[in-house]
Amino acid sequence: MDAAVPEAPAEPAGLVRRLARVLFSIYAWAFVLLNALANCAVAFASEPFIGSEAAWIRAQQWWTRLNLVVGLFRVRVEGLENVPGPAVIAAIHQGSFDINVLALALPRPFHFVARVEVLAVPIVGTALRRARHILIRRGGGAANDEALREAEERLRRGSRVIFFPEGTRSEDGSVRPFRSGAFRLAARTGCPLVPAVISGTRMANPKGTALIIPSRIVIRFLESRIVSEDEARSDAFREKIRAEMAAHLERLNLETGPRL
Description:
Layout: H1 12-50, H2 52-70, E1 74-78, E2 87-91, H3 98-105, E3 110-115, H4 124-130, E4 134-136, H5 142-156, E5 160-163, H6 181-189, E6 193-199, E7 215-221, H7 229-233, H8 235-252, E8 257-258
Parallel strand pairs: 1-7, 2-5, 2-6, 3-4, 3-5
Antiparallel strand pairs: 6-7, 7-8
Helix pairs in contact: 1-2, 2-3, 5-6
């Protein structure tokens, strides 16, 4: 019987990189928390002058910018000319920093569509509620019809309404099947649907870990399109858009990824 081959020890360079990522993550999370608290204080102080919604959306944009700078992320924005005014943004969801990247790239005002369960997250829940982002529940129903009506009202006021049509972050980097909410809203309002592809955020904070890894990130807004009622109901149309976005993601993944 052959003797078992001992496992090769980890390369010193790999151990150094791992240690550097852990130490950097501790520093980055400490800043993220302090930055969130500081921007919450600024938002509360600004409410009497510019209103709750505007104060918190502005604070979230500054919060986002500082998080990305301190996290040593390099973000490139492409195709912003495809979002000249009110629009329904359908963004693929690769990582927890997708929200930061979208808030950095888009001009104000903008509103995210998020699950109501997020309200339980400290600080984040307060920011979502006071900025009047749009909250939906699992399983649909009358409450979500009301949420879509709120989204229509935001669009009429000139906002960009942002959906993650996959419903949750990707586990493996693939683009999951799309739900219909963003498509139905675009069809009901006549506002353009703008697909948004974000690459590089999946490894910036790998799912299931607390690591924050400095990364190269690209967000690309694809050509807008007007969606008909028939298209909004069509599984084939949603799959066509999903496949187009997945192809862009595959190409962008060659340019993005960890810097540390």
